[in-house]
Known about the structure:
Blueprint: E1 2-6, E2 12-16, E3 26-31, E4 37-42, E5 45-50, E6 56-61, E7 70-71, E8 75-79, E9 85-89, E10 94-98, E11 110-113, E12 119-126, E13 129-137, E14 140-148, E15 157-160, E16 163-167, E17 172-176, E18 181-185, E19 195-199, E20 205-209, E21 214-219, E22 225-229, E23 238-239, E24 244-246, E25 249-255, E26 259-266, E27 271-279, E28 284-289, E29 293-298, E30 303-307, E31 313-317, E32 326-330, E33 334-337
Antiparallel strand pairs: 1-2, 1-33, 3-4, 4-5, 5-6, 7-8, 8-9, 9-10, 11-12, 12-13, 13-14, 15-16, 16-17, 17-18, 19-20, 20-21, 21-22, 23-25, 24-25, 25-26, 26-27, 28-29, 29-30, 30-31, 32-33
Amino acid sequence: EIQCYQADSLAPIWTTKINSYLYGSLSTLASIPKSNHLFCQKDNIFMILDGSSGQILSQCQAPTIPISVIVDEEKVNGVLSDGSYYEYRFDDNSCTSVSFMENELAKAEIDFTTPNGATYYVCPHNSTQIHIYKYTCDNDWQLFTKASNVSLSSKASLSSGDFLAHLGWNELSILNISKKEIIVVSDVTSSNGNTLTAISEDGTYVWIGNNSENVICVEASTGAVTKYVLPIPLDKGRVSTRFHFAEDKLYYVCSNDAETNLCTWDPVTEECQIVAVAEGKNSLILRGVTGDFSIVTDKDQKVVLISHKTGNQQILSDVASPICAIAENTKNGQYAVS
Length: 338
């Protein structure tokens, strides 16, 4: 199910149900650049939706389920689970696939695009080495570089800008794509088990933390480590959920026996602001964040959308259903959530 809300008032605009023959959650929801349309992918089904009404404008079926999805103005392309390249074009609603690519790309776990538009696929080669392929033109890849002493896991890897960051058991590996260099940082572990949380939008900083007020910032180009302690605006309070990162700010939940606060913290000014307050201990669980709103689960297990600008709240679901994706930057100040 995809729901659309007005960004400022959080007033519901439309709801569209997505069906397919295969069982699975909606995997991709994205705005199509320079249009008022949304692209969504569920299993091997591709759909284009009107951003104003939610109406399904077109639908196409891929040969199998994609493992990577890259959306631009005219098409969607990537790699299918059988290792073949696919391309879904919006103008004629066609999906084609070609399977003469290297078999190793069938194991690709991460795809990302750098600011200059270059697209890369990251594949685990063995237990200690990854191969990175660069997309050069339609249906063609070249082995871009190899990185050793890296054990790839998509759950512990993030990419942004020209950097790919991977957090292993004891160290952080940062691959500089433009320089084909790798930086290994060891001073990022803690007793409570840190997780790779976010990369800044320009790719210059990697944020690491867990369910505590202690967070680590690593400069991607140098590996320099800075440790911070998040402020807690509650007496005898503590951070209760893992923080999220959006538009260069950290969002997190802290709680004491009486109330729970959703907070935001600016690493530059070190200023802390309270976004929302709820009665009771651990009565908010942070599920997702964009620059304009947060999605939380409240004490009644309802999924709630909270506007950062106005503080307005909107119930998305009466049950604690998972949030799969958020499409931002649609026209008319609207946001779609699945």
